[in-house]
Amino acid sequence: MNKRQTSVSFSKETLDKLDSLQALNKSASRNKIIENAINFYFAYKTGEINQDYICSVYGKKVEGIIGNNTDRLSRLLFKETVEINLLTRLVASHFEIDKNTYDKMRLTAVNDSKSTKGIISIYDAQS
After folding, report:
1. 124, 113 in Cβ contact below 8 A?
2. Which of 32, 56, 80, 121 could bond to 28 as cystine, CB 3.0-4.6 Å?
3. Helix axis angle, 12-24 relative to 30-94, nearest 10°?
4. Cα–Cα nearest to 35, from 80, 1, 74
C-alpha cells in the first residue's frame, strides 16, 4: 500500500481518547485508528450530501406527481360540471320547471347535502 507520512498535532484530550481507543482494540495502531476515523467521517459527510441530494430529487418528483394529478382532477371535475349543468337544463326544460320551483328544489338539495355531508339515499330523495 502506498502511504505518505504527515505530521499532525492533537490536544492532550484527543490523544487520551486515541489511547483509549487503542486500548479497546489491542491490535490497532494509532495510525490505523486515525485512518478509520477519517474514513468513517468521510463516509458520514458524503452520505449526508447524498441524502440531501436524494431528498431534493425525490421531493421534486413527488411535487410533479401531485401537480399532474391536480391538473387531471381539475379537468375531470370541469367536464363533470358541464355534463351536470347540461342534464339539469334538460330536465328543467322537459318538465317545464319555472325558476321559482327550481330555486326551491335547489335550496332543498343544498340543505340535504349539508345535513348529510353529501350522503343521500335514493329513498330519502323521493320524499
Report:
1. no
2. 32
3. 90
4. 1
120 neighbors 112 (Cβ within 8 angstroms): yes
Task: Give the pLDDT confidence of 46-81 residue by residue, as tens digits.
Answer: 888 888 888 888 888 999 999 999 999 999 999 999
* 21 contacts 33 by C-beta, under 8 angstroms: yes
Take residue 10 and report the three cell numbers written for it: 492533537
What one-character-per-residue DSSP string does 30-92 give?
HHHHHHHHHHHHHHHHHHHHHHHHHHHHHHHHHHHHHHHHHHHHHHHHHHHHHHHHHHHHHHH
Asked whether 31 and 18 are in contact (CB, 8 A), the reply is no
CB 22 within 8 A of CB 29: yes
pLDDT for res 109: 82
